[in-house]
Amino acid sequence: MGKCEYCGVTVKGSESCPLCGRPVQGKTEKMYPACPADQNEIPEKRTPYWPAVVTAGVVGICALVNLVTRGSSGGYWCLDIAVIFAYLWVLVLHTVKSKTRGSFKLMLQACLIVAMLCVFDWNAGRGLWSVNFAIPFACIGMIFLATYIVMTRKINWSGYIGYMVAVALFGQIPIMGILLGLTHFVWPSFAAAGYAVFTFLMMLMFANGRYKDAQTRRFRF
Prior knowledge:
Layout: E1 2-3, E2 10-11, H1 37-40, H2 50-69, H3 78-96, H4 102-123, H5 129-152, H6 157-179, H7 187-220
Antiparallel strand pairs: 1-2
Helix pairs in contact: 2-3, 3-4, 4-5, 4-6, 5-6, 5-7, 6-7
């Protein structure tokens, strides 16, 4: 217990008077035990590097085994493992944890899926099944997913325009195979491009209607 000679009050657990701030006379007892300051500091969160190390190790081991056991007609199946791990890394770090726009995530997913299909096709004997069938149907699925997101979620105008750009991009990807002379069965590519054009026009009409409604409400008030 301590006592302030100026204010005449008894102070417990402090070395200064709470009224005037002067040091108190007598012995003061601390209400809480002393604790080092470094123990109260919150430890910094460190990014775990072991997943990257494990990924690099697995891909490196697969590449070594592939090169050692590869014959004259063997393929580079280690590339399949590499693109799968790359897709998983982008899926977790960019698609799941990232806060970027959903349309940009969808476009990146489409580009990675197209790259994976091309690598799988090249390692499987270059049958061109990726550009003939797999990529067009994958683009149709991406267009349907973009339409579903627009119809079921509430998004702003910039996000809506981003999905429109994504739909236009998905329709152009299969056409690139035809222009490069890689596609022999053109009907899947034309189906994907036609579906993209139809979806883009419907989204444009829907956006025009929403814009007119917003302008009408703005002029009313």
